[in-house]
């Protein structure tokens, strides 16, 4: 049995009836399956069993504390990109010595926080960042463990906006300057060179770009060792795609692992992974309510109560999310609709020209595969409160983030004194 499935024509999350829950707590909300999170971590980790590997879950995919706590209990580390993510990972019980810190714009304050916490690795993305880290570490009388994130100039990823490993992308150190930067790192007193890092993009649907990039990384390690550099870790980032719709069959983690074992076996390095979407994406969905059906002259619209502020992926990346009614009306006819939210932007849509059964206002629909980059990319645009997140475990559920009141939403702002 799946962790999200229909029983008696009603959608369940594990053993919780989603329609009943929606009636009780109101929509929209995200709902996650604890069992699915645990299963995904195991599938990924098991693929690398027998190798020295650290799975550092990419917190940006879903940074809810309860989610991080589940992953901590499965023994994963964390890939963080801000002091906020670092604080959340530590709060949830992820040990500092399993945390890697990525990102092109780490501030000195963030470096300090991470050095004081004693993280496992900084993934350094530029020459000036390396110099800054050396300085901050020196001031704190600490040594910063470093991998340099290299840009292998390989195109990958489900969309132009989520590709990170081409030379036009802002990420990583240009391939041609990597060796020189490692040489510089070795001169710096407060930097300890540990490894090589790369991350080429997200929602990658085939193994070829991984293979191309990982082979280049293996070659670089050989070159660096020739230069006398001790390289003991290889961080391969995240990026493994997931199915968002019928017929999409991204590589299985086992096949990804086979490829990696083949390419990296001769290197004798610890492997680090930063999977995000693969762990969280299909562990959650977004439940929304149909508010109105509107017949335009060119299109029919289903207007729902979740907007682009709640789930920005369609607006930002033209991303596809399957949509299914939470309670099935078996007699319903099919028609094509644009499913749109209430936000005042033309880009506020969840699906365009989607074939869906007729539904009546007040009925619920599930936006599938929304566990990754859903809640974590949401905003309060149009002064819409961040929506609740629910975690299901068997027939129990818990509200792991509640809807703020409007008073709470305004509590952080103040009128300046001169306004009286
Ligand atoms: C540095 C880094 N690591 C890991 C990830 C996680 O990627 P994914 O969710 O595709 O596994 C990202 C996001 O693309 C990233 O930028
Ligand atoms: N946020 C993106 C992926 C980019 C991940 C961050 N590097 C998405 O929803 O697909």
CATH fold-type name of the largest domain: TIM Barrel
Helix-residue proportion: 25-40%
> What's the CATH first level of the largest domain?
Alpha Beta
Question: Main beta sheet, described?
Answer: 9 strands, mixed
Write out the CATH superfamily name of the largest domain: Alanine racemase
Tell me the fraction of residues in β-strands, as a range: 25-35%
Counting helices, strands and paired strands, the structural category is alpha/beta
User: What's the number of helices?
Assistant: 12
SS elements, strand count: 21
> What oligomeric arrangement do these chains adopt?
single chain
Would you identify the regions where 5 or more consecutive residues have pLDDT less than 50? none
Overall pLDDT metric:
96
Bound molecules: pyridoxal-5'-phosphate, lysine
Q: What's the gyration radius in Å?
A: 23 Å
If classified by CATH, what would the architecture of the largest domain be? Alpha-Beta Barrel
* Number of spatially distinct domains: 2
Q: End-to-end span in angstroms?
A: 61 Å
The best one-word shape is globular
